Amino acid sequence: MANRWQDSEAAAFQDAAGQDPAARELALRVYTSRLIGMDPDLVMHGGGNTSVKLKARDIFGEELDVIHIKGSGWDLETIKAAGLPAVRMAPLMRLRELAALSDEDMVNIQRSNLMDSTAPNPSVETLLHAYIPHTYVDHTHATAFLTLANLPEVAEATREIFGSKLALVPYVMPGFALAKLAAETYEAHPGIEGLLLVKHGHFAWGPTAKASYDKIIEHTNLVEEWLASRRPGKLVAVARPQTASVAETLATLRGAIARHLPEGAAMPVFDLRDGDAVLDFLERKDLASLATRGVATPDHVIRTKGHPLHLTRADVARGPEAISAVVDRFVADYIAYFERNAPRFGGAKTMLSPVPNLAWIEGIGLVGMGANATAARIAADIGEQTLRVMADGEARGGFYPIREADLFDMEYWSLEQAKLGKGAKPALQGQVVLVTGGAGAIGLATAKVFAAAGATLFLVDRDQAALDTALASLGRDHAGHACDITAKGAAASAVAACVARFGGLDILISNAGAAMTGDVATLADETLRASFELNFFAHQAFAQAAVAVFRRQGRGGQILFNVSKQAVNPGKGFAAYGLPKAATFFLLRQLALELGGEGIRVNGINADRIRSGLLTPEMIAARSSARNIDEATYMGGNLLRKEVEAVHVGEAFLALARSERTTAHVMTVDGGNIEAALR
């Protein structure tokens, strides 16, 4: 593991903080926190915490000792000084005199001693950091240390690697009891360089930011080197199934999970990991046993649940009924797990959703699942790390994490659940939306509108470079597929790629098209056929592929077509465009008629005069000049006298998507064109 410290970078952080000595020290705390956070083999997704003990002045100008520690909701990779709130040390130290302290009182004391009352809640491990008498303290969940922490002979292995440099702290849930036990362990082993929290993670410290960070890297590399000597050499070559086959399995699994969700709840979004190391792991003969063992560190349970859903090759081969049966067993097992453990809390706990957050699918890969693509990615990242921990652990004596009761306590701990946030969910959270022509003006504007509403986007476009640019503008956790949608089988392949990426499909926005011109009486056959391929047959092919996924999921779905005012208001010289668009208009109505009973809604947009495709700046200039009007007047040539923009089309698509009792409807988005009004 590389040591990422750079003197020049550290100096830049300090210079940006100004000349105040305390601010400059805090800047170094921010810098090394980010160095730790950017390495997923040290911490991932909000895990770990860091602190620094400094002097500060209160409102009366009196100097006092404070500890700056990671605040709730901050991630080490992107943390700023504001994410390391200062807490008065004296009251925290006095708490050690108590025999017990409730979580609620601990949080209240920490919060009431913040130097800034508007700061985020200090970490639940604030007291542990405070009780270790070193200026800088770092806590990580390094992959190598998680392997070591879950070995059955962890004490012997730790002595072999570190001698007397590290002391072990038996597993205790984070909070006051763990802080006192860690402090007592530290004091019983003077001169140690760090602590290994059994089943949990690693602590190290130092007088400076660099010294503490150096210890984190040094210790982690010592464990890594010890583990590496027992790893098998080559990975097993595992043949990958076709994308279409993977998509069928994932859509079936998604539908099976959805049957255990409340009416109207969004299905989970998936994130498939099928690298060589994952597929090799899923070939293990002890896979069924490992699938029931638990999590690499208790912090992970809120993201992945206690264990994954395990689909064997036989389950996959037997099809939907077998897959559903495995999901049913998982849900029943989770309910039984809750019912075994909840009585200890006297009815104070409400069961979380019993569906899986992680799946192991033999021959296909590891699948993270979540309410959105970000949550799915986090679950998949943690799932992959856990596979590495398990593999290394089994090679060195075994992987034996915390027991069921401890796992339940952590999963249902209010302070742990608070990390997930409880804000109102976006309207389209969990909805996977495929947009054809996604890199074009209307397609991308529509994608942005849906992304803002919480949807997960999958863009399809012909040009890879344009697609990459479009996806970059959407931000992380969206994806795409480049292809010529008029090619044979392209629609089915694109939809399969979407399902393989996100597990399924909820809304198809069949948007791609192009306006081909020519008088019908003299129109070349090739031109008309080419226009039908793009402006009708591609729509039909994507609709067929989407319906197949909707039926496999069994939860309805939506198809939204970008039709055109040409379908009802033909323009002279636009026969090649209007004829297939009129056919698409009929396709929309026919599909709505046929699919309504399955809960599949089909609607569309008739737009006009949008700056995209055919309506280039050159054409706008030419038509404005020909009419002897300015461009603004030309673009606002409608009843409202206002230009219609691509974003307005996107917003109309969104309105239709949210109109739960509307199907077979076409909405005009043209500012008012009475000749194109539907009658």
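Above is the first protein from milestone M3; the second protein from the same milestone is given next.
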Amino acid sequence: MFRAFRSEVEDAVEAALDALDLPTDDLGVEEPPEDVPATLASSVAFRLAGEVGAAPPAVAQDVADAIDLGDCEYVGRVDTQGPYVNFYVSDSYYADTLDAGRAADYGTLPPTGKSVVVEHTSANPTGPVHVGRARNPIFGDAVARVLDYAGNDVERHYYVNDAGRQVAVFTWAYETFDESDLPEPERDRADYDLVRYYRKGNEFLENAEGDVVEAAEAEIAEIMQGLEAGDEETYERVAIVVDQVLGGMRASLERLPAEFDRFVKETGFIRDGSADDVVTRLKASDHAVYEEDAWQLDLSAFGLEKNLVFLRSDDTTLYTTRDLAHHEWKFENYDEAVTVLGEDHKLQAEQLEAALEILGNDTDQLRQTFYSWVNLPEGGMSTREGTGVDLDDLLDESIRRAREEVEDRLGSRVRNDELREEDIDRIAHQVGIGAVRYDIVSKQPTKGITFEWERALDFEAQSAPYVQYVHARCCGIEGEAADAGIEPAIDTALLDTDAERELLADIARFPAVIEEAAEDLEPHVVATFAREFAETFNTFYRECSVLNAEDDAVAAARLGLVEASRHTVANALDALGIEAPESM
């Protein structure tokens, strides 16, 4: 309802300004100051005071007097406070909010008709996913989810780097070293098994004698050239390594969960000739230069000092060259292409966008969002050196700690249901995985994170368990109400306390929160809403009993509010990729 209310406010302000023959280019509709009890306010009087030649409070009063609420369903009244024109909701706003919130898909916006591809994670297939890169699949999956909730037709893609030097080194190492030369794998899975070859190969290249390394580098270069030349045997050799490792990585990612509709291989754009086509077109552009034995793009016209190399002296393309072909393919097949990248890829992203413009593409289709790294207090991580903390280790530890927390709280539970061993396992998994996801996705993506167990698993603070507990509490209330024969009702006239009205107001805002998160690619906005909603619900729970309400009608109305709250918190969590437990 908040979105409809906001629209009515904007229309009313615009019509009033038209009637006063004042400009309507900036309506100034915004959240009011904390000391103003309105739902929305307009600060347009600040902007118009100089033009009108009157003080802002006087201008605000003139605008308020010119507002006609005759066609408004959700704006109940208007007043002024200083320079602000304030708008208050009607009784219909609350009634329709409660009615809408009782739908299981509440928060899902109408279809936009727009197809969106979200590319995220795309970690090199060289070994298990480690914690430092865990933010990409968690943040990327949440971006895809909020875009889906916002009514878009979303596909999730993983772009597989199966043509670069690292994969060539991996293939060479896999074919060169014997398993007897390697340590035991950390887990019985292909990515943990094969990463030993990758680490062994890098160690060899760093420490072996010069002539031996030179021979190895020649073999690695031959693999890269074979890929570039479209040699089927080389593709098959590389695929043996890549596909096995990728299968193991997918198993880790699915635990989050971060699932993909499509795995798009980089080599596909070599094999179909589209990378060569990009090279031909870039060479013909006015920005192409041949310097330092390579074809490059001079991007100074785009404000970028560093050139973009797109073809080596041996006529092999680079990752970015193939990614240009990849993006053109996305532009042809989708209305919008969203890419989630680490902050260390900002320059490459700027170069990519400039090159796409040079190639004649409409880069308005492209949206790129960046994230910073996740660290553990123990320090840095590196797949290449084999010193990292793997994502599987983090998830296992989080589930273990969550189970301990759940078991410690068993004696203080107020629910009269009895948790079996499998229930405790389920809750530990939901809470443990949810804690990791929420702790990562709740932060602004450009801010670095140091993951801390105590904060992430705190049932009483700003964490996933705190929000998840609200859903479990709603389920418990509804279950006990059903046993008592209480049916939910829509009667907001009986929901007149501050706690009830504030909870209704939060429920009304949820679809607008989804809209904002999708527009800005910022799922942390939903996480913030979920935490604040949990606080509002807990105030309602303390102050407004459902089962012991003053009469049956009030109990039924409050039960309807609990039902709407459950759908709101469940879908807020779902938009973040976090499960909503029915009991905790």
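Note on the second protein: The first strand starts at residue 29 and ends at 30.
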